[in-house]
């Protein structure tokens, strides 16, 4: 999923995964338990519990964002913050439990009455939807509207903004989408035997299908109200709030939806009177507004910038209103196994041992910006286990071990290579310099190559032909998953089938049949514990290959103005649970 | 980018009244134009000050490795023990400025700013000098040709100048530097790669696209000079064009060329800084002043470590100021009527 406009999310290939209600490894630093018990304000308090629990109503909750959302259409957005925010007005079939801590990773029914009923060996999934749910105009939600929503968001040329997992998993033949093919009955991937039943037909057994349905793409869209790309001006609401006005690219306001009823929606509340979003405010300005209390939340959830960060951390009264959670992103360097001399595992190991991981951590902003990483899976994903294959004293690198590896590689005096970075990401450039400095100590001369971030994966680092030609041995990048599971995270960056001629995220070009088999088999394994076990094995195999050099498990510094109520960090969306927040 | 600089009057004439005061008659005998200009320049304390600063800068850049060995640390060496890990800024007061690190250390990785400024001066001055040399060479040759020959030669060159002046140089520079390969050979003569290629390209872009400014000035000067009596005299004695151009006209153009070059250098320093600031300068970790400024701004570190921005900013400011003062003084000395 995307955190900022420039972060490329997972494309439409194989991903998914599911599973797991309880997060495997547990995030040590983020507290875990999360039973929803409330409490007062303290640094990091909202990571594990609800801060300022209250049922007080009224007030206007104000959001700001630096740019503008890609689209407010629930079927056409690929930002985690929007999957979080659209729940104000769009109810999906399933959703993540609105609770702090690991409880938030559990999938629960939203529009549906219960989780999916699999049959036919995991190829057919049946859902019943709640009766009496109404749109903002008072008409009732029908199963066919959900079928239509999935069809428009996954099968049309117009709506390309979101992921296309349904295209990949549903047995829909060469269905052309509802804009070209006006007869919805031609869409065979979903059947609606009656107004309250949905039957999903898959092209392969997929026991963890429920995760797919948490995406706002499964929130109903009445066919008569669909205006294609313009639908984002006023998506028809099924949630507690609806659009009052919307000036695209500038601002919008949500007001209470009179036809929403708490009786059919046990997960949401209708605390504030209005929700407003102001777009295109600079990052520094947003920080100042939040600190001054004139606005309440930064929609993108990317956290405070350096100046505000220093201000918050150096003042106890501000610090107690801040949280420092993991974002689920792993920042790393990939060593291209197809570029000499990194085709030799010993040369890759030399880099692992030579690297001063405290220096790369410093490049991203120090301990507040992330914990030093030693595994392929971050602690936010299922299957994470803590271990360190290439431990060095104080994480500062070990010149002797690196030289031994270089000897074994047949390059005792080191070698020359290149480090690819996104030139406009100053933190990646700084990380490149830190790496360069570490490697120089063992005789590896690395030259930094800057490329534009917009085409980084399509033209440069993600294009193997270019990587080979320019001898980009080291590629600095980052990754976050669409779903918080080992499969969702690793299948795109480590499976040999993920290697593509362009927009390739397996930049190390790792082709390990054992990893492929574990990932393929894991997706078809019903038992949750067994599946997590398999993701852990994939993680270890990747690290054994020494092709992935993890830098940090990224963290962010979020500020929550003290007058917000019911604030907590939602582990599935990796930002505050927006629809739960009220005002004092 | 570069404003055409008005250099009026070319023929450098001795101004006895101005020079004579306090000098005895004998001394005037045999004094060359250069000597007279130098006499005038010596009296201009401000210009002289600029000249001294310029000289010191050049010496500092040339002897940077020695100075750094004596007073600093290698420019790429990390000193993370001097950095507060939480705030990424130097733990010492005023950015860690002290006897150990004269200009303090860089936030994040603790590199010595003193040595980075010195090494940055090498890049800035090298690019600025060579780019100036390139524009002046092209400008003088084409300007003289246009002014002297006139006719279609003049028309073609003058239109070419217009085209170059209208060129969106900054955008082009960004695009070009972004698209360069990692190595290239220049006319098959020598191979350039990585940083040396980038520096060569910076020099080419800055130098090649700035020639019309000096070209126009030289053309104007040549136009008026070629109608002068000494040119007629030379021609009537059977001198051919090359002789007239190089022996008669060029010496009379030395004044404006010298002045314009001195004033073009600071402009080029700023342009190089601008390109580095925009991320198309030399590759890290090679320091350059514009790149250091850019780091301070894009990393949002200037509010918590202001010295990170002030030090390279001051370096650029002082250098540009010194060159400009020297250039102004030189113009006054060579052409007192322009005062």
From TrEMBL, chain A:
Gene3D superfamilies hit by this protein: Dipeptide-binding Protein, Domain 3 (3.10.105.10), Periplasmic binding protein-like II (3.40.190.10)
Signal peptide: 1-21
Coiled-coil regions listed in the entry: none
Keywords per UniProt: Signal
Domain Solute-binding protein family: 106-499
Keyword Signal: yes
PANTHER family: ABC TRANSPORTER SUBSTRATE-BINDING PROTEIN, PERIPLASMIC BINDING COMPONENT OF ABC TRANSPORTER
Protein's UniProt name: ABC transporter substrate-binding protein
From TrEMBL, chain B:
ABC transmembrane type-1 domain sequence ranges: 121-327
Pfam families xrefs: BPD_transp_1 (PF00528), OppC_N (PF12911)
CDD domains in alphabetical order: TM_PBP2
Membrane topology qualifier: Multi-pass membrane protein
Chief place where the protein resides: membrane
Organism domain of life: Bacteria
InterPro entries in the record: BP-dependent_transpt_permease, MetI-like, MetI-like_sf, OppC_N
Endpoints of the signal sequence: none
Transmembrane portions of the chain: 46-68, 123-151, 163-190, 196-214, 257-284, 304-327
Keyword list, A-Z: Cell membrane, Membrane, Transmembrane, Transmembrane helix, Transport
Keyword Transmembrane: yes
UniProt-annotated location(s): Cell membrane
Family under the similarity heading: Belongs to the binding-protein-dependent transport system permease family.
Descriptive protein name: ABC transporter permease
């Amino acid at each position: 999923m995307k955190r900022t406009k420039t972060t490329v999310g997972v494309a439409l290939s194989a991903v998914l995964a599911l599973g797991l209600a309880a997060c495997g490894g547990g995030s040590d630093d983020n507290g875990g338990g999360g039973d929803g018990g409330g409490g007062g304000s303290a640094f990091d308090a909202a990571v594990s519990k609800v801060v300022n629990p209250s049922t007080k109503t009224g007030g206007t909750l104000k959001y700001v964002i630096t740019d503008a959302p890609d689209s407010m259409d629930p079927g056409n957005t690929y930002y985690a913050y929007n999957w979080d925010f659209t729940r104000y007005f769009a109810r999906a079939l399933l959703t993540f439990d609105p609770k702090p801590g690991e409880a938030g990773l559990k999938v629960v029914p939203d529009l549906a009455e219960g989780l999916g009923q699999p049959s036919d060996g995991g190829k057919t999934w049946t859902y019943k939807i709640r009766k009496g749910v109404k749109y903002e105009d008072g008409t009732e939600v029908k199963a066919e509207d959900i079928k239509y929503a999935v069809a428009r968001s996954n099968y049309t040329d117009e709506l390309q903004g979101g992921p296309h997992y349904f295209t990949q998993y549903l047995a829909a033949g060469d269905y052309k989408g509802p804009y070209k093919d006006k007869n919805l009955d031609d869409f065979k991937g979903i059947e609606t035997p009656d107004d309250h039943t949905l039957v999903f037909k898959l092209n392969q057994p997929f026991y963890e299908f429920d995760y797919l349905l948490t995406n706002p793409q499964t929130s109903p869209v009445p066919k008569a109200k669909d205006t294609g790309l313009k639908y984002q001006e006023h998506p028809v609401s099924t949630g507690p709030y609806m659009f009052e006005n919307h000036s695209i690219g500038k601002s919008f306001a949500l007001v209470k939806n009179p036809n929403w009823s708490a009786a059919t929606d046990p997960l949401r509340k209708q605390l504030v009177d209005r929700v407003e979003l102001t777009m295109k405010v600079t990052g520094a300005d947003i920080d100042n507004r939040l600190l001054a209390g004139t606005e309440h939340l930064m929609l993108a959830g990317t956290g405070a910038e350096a100046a505000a960060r220093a201000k918050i951390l150096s003042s106890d009264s501000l610090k107690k209103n801040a949280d420092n959670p993991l974002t689920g992103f792993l920042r790393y360097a990939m060593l291209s196994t197809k570029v000499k001399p990194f085709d030799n595992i010993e040369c890759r190991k030399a880099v692992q041992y030579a690297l001063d991981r405290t220096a790369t951590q410093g490049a991203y902003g120090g301990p507040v910006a992330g914990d030093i990483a030693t595994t392929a899976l971050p602690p936010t994903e299922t299957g994470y286990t803590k271990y360190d294959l290439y431990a060095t004293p104080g994480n500062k690198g070990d010149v002797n071990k690196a030289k031994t590896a270089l000897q074994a590689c047949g390059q005792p005096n080191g070698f020359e290579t290149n480090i690819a970075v996104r030139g406009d990401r100053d933190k990646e450039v700084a990380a490149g310099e830190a790496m360069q400095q570490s490697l120089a100590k063992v005789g590896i001369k690395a030259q930094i190559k800057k490329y534009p971030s917009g085409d980084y994966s399509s033209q440069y680092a993600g294009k193997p032909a270019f990587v080979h030609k320019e001898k980009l041995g080291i590629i600095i990048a980052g990754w976050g998953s669409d779903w918080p599971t080992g499969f969702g995270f690793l299948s795109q960056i480590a499976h040999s089938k993920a290697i593509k001629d362009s927009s390739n995220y397996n930049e190390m070009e790792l082709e390990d049949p054992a990893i492929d088999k574990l990932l393929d088999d894991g997706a078809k394994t019903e038992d949750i514990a067994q599946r997590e076990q398999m993701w852990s094995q994939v993680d270890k195999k990747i690290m054994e290959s020494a092709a992935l050099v993890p830098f940090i498990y990224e963290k962010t510094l979020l500020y929550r103005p003290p007058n917000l109520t019911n604030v907590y960090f939602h582990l599935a969306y990796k930002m505050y649970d927006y629809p739960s927040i009220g005002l004092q | 980018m570069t404003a055409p600089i008005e250099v009026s009057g070319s023929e450098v004439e001795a101004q006895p009244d101005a020079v004579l005061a306090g000098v005895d008659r004998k001394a005037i005998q045999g004094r060359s134009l250069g000597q007279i200009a130098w006499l005038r320049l010596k009296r201009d304390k401000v210009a002289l000050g600029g000249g001294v600063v310029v000289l010191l800068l050049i010496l500092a850049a040339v002897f940077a490795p020695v100075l750094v060995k004596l007073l600093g640390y290698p420019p790429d060496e990390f000193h993370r023990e001097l950095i507060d890990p939480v705030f990424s800024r130097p733990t010492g007061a005023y950015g860690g400025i002290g006897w150990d690190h004269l200009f303090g250390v860089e936030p994040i990785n603790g590199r010595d700013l003193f040595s980075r400024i010195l090494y940055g001066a090498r890049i800035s001055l090298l690019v600025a000098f060579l780019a100036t040399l390139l524009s002046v060479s092209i400008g003088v040759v084409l300007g003289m040709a246009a002014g002297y020959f006139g006719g279609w030669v003049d028309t073609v060159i003058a239109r070419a100048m217009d085209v170059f002046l209208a060129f969106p140089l900054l955008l082009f520079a960004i695009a070009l530097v972004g698209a360069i390969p990692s190595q290239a050979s220049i006319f098959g003569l020598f191979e350039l790669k990585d940083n040396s290629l980038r520096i060569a390209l910076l020099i080419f872009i800055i130098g090649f696209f700035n020639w019309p400014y000096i070209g126009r000035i030289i053309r104007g000067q040549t136009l008026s000079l070629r109608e002068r009596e000494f040119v007629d005299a030379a021609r009537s004695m059977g001198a051919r064009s090359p002789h007239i151009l190089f022996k008669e006209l060029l010496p009379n153009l030395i004044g404006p060329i010298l002045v314009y070059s001195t004033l073009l250098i600071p402009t080029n320093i700023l342009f190089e800084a601008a390109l580095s600031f925009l991320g198309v300068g030399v590759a890290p970790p090679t320091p350059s002043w514009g790149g250091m400024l850019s780091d301070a701004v894009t990393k949002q570190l200037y509010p918590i470590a202001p010295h990170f921005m002030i030090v390279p900013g001051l370096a650029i400011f002082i250098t540009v100021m010194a060159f400009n003062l020297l250039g102004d003084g030189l113009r006054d000395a060579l052409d007192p009527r322009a005062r």
